[in-house]
Amino acid sequence: MCGIVGYIGTKRAYPILIKGLKRLEYRGYDSAGVAMISDSGDLNVYKAKGKVDNLTEYCSDKDVSGCVGIAHTRWATHGEPSARNAHPHYSQSRNLAIIHNGIIENYADIKTKLQAQGVEFKSDTDTEVLVRLVEYIMEKKNLSLLEAVQVALHQVIGAYAIAIVDKRDPRQIIAARKQSPLVVGIGENEFFLGSDASPIIDYTDKVVYLEDGNIAVIRLGAELRVMSILGEEQELKVKTVDINLGQIEKGGYEHFMLKEIFEQPECLKNCMRGRINVEGDHVTLSAMIDYRQQLLNAKRIIIVACGTSWHAGLIGKQLFESLCRIPVEVEYASEFRYRDPVIYPDDVVIAISQSGETADTLAAIELARKAGAFVFGVCNAIGASIPRQTQTGVYIHVGPEIGVASTKAFTGQVTVLSMLALCLANERRTIPGEQYKEMVAELTRIPEKMEEALKTNEQIERLAPIFTYAKNCLYLGRGYNYPLALEGALKLKEISYIHAEGYPAAEMKHGPIALIDSEMPVFVIATRDRLYEKVISNIQEVRARGGRVTALVTEGDTQICKFADHVITLPDTLECFQPLIASIPLQLLAYHIAVCKGKDVDRPRNLAKSVTVE
Ligand code: M6R
């Protein structure tokens, strides 16, 4: 939610900041802005509503000189998307400029108090309140910028990643974080700032992930200093990042989403690499070695997640219950955190998150840890907050996911949950050894079967225009395919803005069947499994009411084509791995429908990739 970039060094800051903003545009694109201290010592702030390209156009005739600057791409929380509310925000004297990702919850109180002291405001944002508070403290108490930031951060309640520059001291940027991510890159006589490492990796692989409550003093010609808000120096933990540029560029595809859909076979190989042995019949997860007892003794598993990650959690529930015989609850992290839930010390809480920065999931983790539960993370972004705040976990290793609509992270999460369930089932002896081996072997065959599933792309591209008229769509599935119905519907909603609902197919007769007519496309995941015959009956119920059925079926199926308008054929696999294969046509369907409707697939309206506000 909002992307932050910063640079201080000997190079021109502007191109570095703009390139960084483009990398972070997935975090928000309501507006973009830069603040740079120019060669002549002015603090220039330029902002534009909308995407980064609008900003560069606006800046085309402006003074963009200078070797220090901060920049921001916004996902609006307080104040409508507009140039006026865009970051950076000046202080009243225009000596300071700030960028911020997060929410200052008590901004209204602070604003009222500052207004009573004669401080004026130009925007509706919480962020402007913070920079004006910092300046007020500097002047009133005669403090340095660093000292004033420390005092101000004591007064604010909320979440923040901030960076501030002062034109009277062009060799310094002050940055701080609480609950919103911030990374400092360390180069040769230069420093970088980013909400994640993607704006930094072109220049250096040495980074420091700031911890909650840390302030970074970034001073040219000096060592990076990290301290607490109270001023206590913190040990500098310099990490080496391992992301290559190819991983975050489009690689010839029209959109990141399409690239990420097509990458999935390779991603899942990476996810399993080193975890499934070369013989392909045994899984080893280091988390299982290090925390064996906590995991094996779990009386209950609680999965906390949001959005697509929550859908992966629903598949995880079925895996853990059927293979390991451990009861599982799957919770929306945003509800769990405020529900006063019953958590026992022998519960294992699994937090699933692509970004590792989702505020609601982080809050759910904190709650679980306070209750004494063992918390296990399933995350994609290396070094993000969730892997740092869980006792242990597993990275899904699918590489950076840039498309706002999650695709490869979903299948990576399901793969990790499958490996974990198989490990636990084997250790707990809840499935026979032979079955365990066969299941592991089948998991290793999934990437190859995904390649087959990707061959449906052309058929789906041809079908997509048929559905662009739709105002509503229904997705039906049962068993392991029910969470997939939810996920298919979410994908369509997010990027094509068509209302869609996922339903357990048999629940349809308890209400939603009333919606069915010839205008309503119904997508049914009808792959061959225990419930296959029952799903056929559900399809007939839809057909009898004039509904238009598109069915995903297993190769060799001869029955469903009799009732369905369109049939998409997929390779066979075990029932529990079917969502890994069937997610591909559903992702492609959402993608091609959105493209046909002319929508901005990678940057759908109102959404952000990483939801770091609650
Ligand atoms: O980064 P996370 O997995 O924690 O994100 C959770 C949701 O915000 C995310 O899955 C969202 O629903 C996606 N846009 C779905 O495509």
Q: Can you walk through the features of this model?
A:
With 614 residues, the protein is an alpha/beta fold. The chain has three domains: 3-243, Aminohydrolase, N-terminal nucleophile (Ntn) domain (Glutamine Phosphoribosylpyrophosphate, subunit 1, domain 1, 4-Layer Sandwich); 247-454, Glucose-6-phosphate isomerase like protein, domain 1 (Rossmann fold, 3-Layer(aba) Sandwich), CATH 3.40.50.10490; 455-601, Rossmann fold (3-Layer(aba) Sandwich). It contains 20 helices and 24 strands. An eight-stranded antiparallel beta sheet has the order 3-2-4-1-10-9-11-14, with helices on one face. The protein has a six-stranded antiparallel beta sheet with strand order 5-6-7-8-12-13. The longest helix has 22 residues, at 433-454. The mean pLDDT is 93. The structure holds 5-amino-5-deoxy-1-O-phosphono-D-mannitol (M6R). 5-amino-5-deoxy-1-O-phosphono-D-mannitol is lined by residues 306-309, 353-355, 358, 361, 404-406, 490, 494, 610-611. 5-amino-5-deoxy-1-O-phosphono-D-mannitol binds at residues 306-309, 353-355, 358, 361, 404-406, 490, 494, 610-611.
